[in-house]
Specification:
The radius of gyration is 46 Å and the shape is elongated. A hairpin with a 6-residue loop joins β6 and β7. Among the domains are: 21-77, no CATH class; 84-184, no CATH class. It has twelve helices and eight strands. It is α+β, with helices and mostly antiparallel strands and 305 residues long.
């Protein structure tokens, strides 16, 4: 007799829900939340696993972003995390260190540029950062397929804004670059001198190029054989099985291959026939019939002397 003891599942501690939604206070609560995000389909591309969502939440916490805002404003590009340009400005504004900020476009043609002016709390003067069409051409960005062709003024602004915010408020952004800048960063090289996987030429999200698939292995049975050799081998095999089938009186059609013919032969085995019974040997004949006693000629006195 066996006694089974039911073990109750551990009761998970409830997650507090405040004015800003769920209040994640432990690693277990954060991971459970990440699982909910993935299950609900709210995880952005590139962050489809609960572990990736958890790390993005941690990055957002370091920047001062709540969990869902972190997922919507942090992207992984070329293996590095970045923050969208609008979110970077929001973080700087929310820090209380930005005293003045303005952004304008000036000029036309190659002289077209975006100018961003900002002043940090404690500074005595404004800082100006520009990014022009000439700058974009020098960096091989102007006319590039994607946002640089669709929204050129916007991309000029994002580049000027990203530079000035990183220069003046690096303590707020914790060294994060903007996603717009990361998307245009040339691929880095690893220690072997080979280029690593970089961002796509036109940034369409947080996806990274799929890794190259290894070459398909050659099946052992076909390794080292040419097509002609394989055809000749198959033809010789078919001729051999056709000959066997004909000796058994089986019908073989032209469309049947060697495997089909072998199956036909196996389904019609040769029936063993018993050997014909041999006629009994004829007994030797003597005078008086086969079993007659031998005839002795002469008188008995002839033998008795």
């Amino acid at each position: 007799m066996t006694t089974e003891i039911a073990v109750a599942a551990p009761i998970k501690a409830p997650v507090r829900f405040g004015d800003m939604g769920m209040e994640l206070t432990t690693l277990d609560e954060a991971y459970r939340f990440a699982q909910y995000v993935v299950a609900a389909g709210f995880a952005p591309r590139g962050l489809e696993k609960a572990e990736s969502v958890l790390i993005a939440i941690q990055m957002g916490r370091e920047l001062g972003l709540p969990p869902m805002a972190a997922l919507q404003n942090i992207a992984i590009i070329n293996g590095r995390p970045g923050v969208y340009g609008d979110a970077a400005l929001a973080l700087v504004r929310g820090s209380g260190l930005l005293v003045f900020y303005s952004q304008v476009w000036e000029g036309s043609g190659d002289s077209r540029l975006a100018k961003v002016t900002a002043r940090r709390k404690g500074d005595t003067s404004d800082t100006v950062q520009t990014f022009s069409v000439q700058d974009a051409k020098k960096a091989n960005l102007w006319g590039k397929q994607g946002p640089w062709s669709q929204y050129p003024d916007r991309m000029l602004l994002f580049r000027a804004r990203g530079f000035i915010l990183r220069d003046m408020f690096s303590d707020v952004l914790k060294g994060f670059k903007t996603t717009e800048e990361l998307a245009d960063t040339p691929p880095e090289k690893n220690i072997t001198g080979e280029a690593t996987a970089g961002a796509p030429s036109s940034y369409t999200g947080t996806e990274r190029p799929a890794p190259a698939m290894p070459p398909a292995a050659v099946p052992p049975q076909t390794a080292g054989q040419s097509a002609e050799q394989k055809n000749a081998k198959n033809t010789a095999r078919r001729r051999a099985v056709v000959a066997v089938a004909e000796t058994r009186g089986l019908t073989v059609t032209p469309e049947m291959n060697a495997d089909a013919i072998e199956a036909l032969i196996a389904a019609n085995p040769v029936k063993a026939t018993p050997p014909e019974s041999a006629e009994p040997a004829e007994a030797p004949k003597t005078e008086g019939g086969p079993l007659a006693a031998p005839v002795v000629k002469g008188a008995a006195s002839d033998f008795l002397g």
